[in-house]
Design a protein that fits this description.
Layout (H helix, E strand, L loop, with lengths): L2 H6 L15 E4 L3 E6 L2 E6 L4 E2 L2 E2 L7 H15 L8 E6 L2 E5 L2 E2 L2 E8 L3 H7 L4 E2 L2 E2 L9 E7 L2 E2 L11 H6 L5 H24 L2 E12 L5 E4 L8 E5 L3 H7 L5 E2 L2 H9 L15 H19 L11 H12 L1
Antiparallel strand pairs: 1-2, 2-3, 3-7, 4-5, 6-7, 8-14, 9-12, 9-13, 9-14, 10-11, 14-15, 14-16, 16-17
Helix pairs in contact: 2-8
Length: 319
């Protein structure tokens, strides 16, 4: 997409919504969620988070990309596990079944990168109860994908946790953990095959699950989006790895790296840096690039001058 068009939208992003008159409102890092009867209405905004902090500036079209990409992958994995989606009445809106979320996020990793690499580089050789061999390099492929669950922190950072710790601390029972682990690995395998067809590598991702009123566990939140996943370009992977150079990737990691370069890792006492408009446009272009690379479809942005009004009208249309 033309960078000029992205810059034109800088002043018309969807930072937040407040439709409390329509239902009970909950604000997450990037979504505004409304409980309306037995349904949830999820509004994916243009907020962006890193190191468990919401950044000061928004990213044009990010919400549209995430919401539509999640819908695409929810539909493509429905044969593995049912999901929360009822309808997608607007580029930023998903209407979903009300679920009780599990207390864990199920993170699957196939490569030593990001948090896993930072942990390994610190000298640790165990991650969430999984042993890692000596001699690995950043971006190395693991022998097989591993599950590295985390708790869901209401404030601050999510915490790594092993299967045994999760069961012992009462987050989940053994049978449910094992079922959701096998489901997560099956979802990751599907995502891996879909990415490979598009010349990409699914590096790592996270899954969230919830229980519907009838007791069924379904996939919730999002799936295989750039906010929850990391992708490498497959063609240059081996060459870049052997040369010790950064991978060409589609993810938020380059946003995290920029923040780290400006002295921010989400630690106490650190100040969030501002994102210049040019960088925000670059982030937007990368999100759009990922959408088109993964789906093979052309991203069609909604350039409405008042996205909040557009979103409200869409929600009212399905109530």
């Amino acid at each position: 997409m033309n960078v000029r068009l992205i810059l034109e939208q800088i002043g018309r992003t969807l930072r937040s919504t407040d439709f409390s008159d329509l239902g009970t409102r909950y604000q997450g890092k990037v979504r505004d969620t409304y409980q309306i009867g037995d349904r949830l209405v999820l509004v994916t905004t243009d907020r962006i988070s890193a190191f468990d902090h919401v950044l000061k500036q928004t990213i044009p079209f990010k919400g549209q990309v995430l919401n539509q990409l999640a819908a695409y992958f929810f539909e493509s994995t429905r044969d593995i596990i049912q999901n929360m989606i009822q309808s997608v009445p607007d580029p930023n809106v998903t209407v979903a079944t009300l679920c009780e979320p599990t207390e864990l996020e199920f993170v699957v990793r196939a490569y030593l990168v990001g948090h896993a690499w930072r942990t390994y580089r610190s000298g640790k050789r165990e991650l969430c109860g999984k042993n890692l061999p000596e001699g690995l390099r950043e971006n190395d492929r693991l022998a097989k994908p591993i599950l590295t669950p985390t708790t869901k922190a209401k404030e601050g950072h999510d915490e790594d946790i092993s299967r045994e710790e999760a069961i012992e601390q009462g987050f989940i029972d053994a049978d449910l953990f094992d079922y959701l682990e096998s489901t997560s690995l099956a979802l990751f395998e599907r995502g891996t095959h879909m990415a490979a067809k598009r010349g990409l590598i699914l590096v790592d991702t996270k899954y969230e699950f919830g229980q519907t009123p009838d007791g069924t566990y379904v996939l919730i939140d999002e799936v295989h989006t750039p906010d929850s996943s990391r992708y490498f370009h497959a063609e240059p992977y081996e060459d870049l790895l052997n040369r010790g150079e950064p991978q060409k990737q589609l993810s938020k990691e380059f946003v995290r790296k920029r923040l780290m370069e400006h002295g921010f890792q989400g630690k106490e006492g650190q100040t969030l840096p501002d994102l210049p408009d040019e960088f925000r446009a670059e982030v937007s272009a990368r999100y759009i690039e990922l959408f088109e690379a993964v789906t093979g479809q052309t991203f069609e942005p909604d350039m409405h001058p008042n996205p909040t009004e557009r979103v409200r009208n869409a929600i009212e249309g399905v109530l």
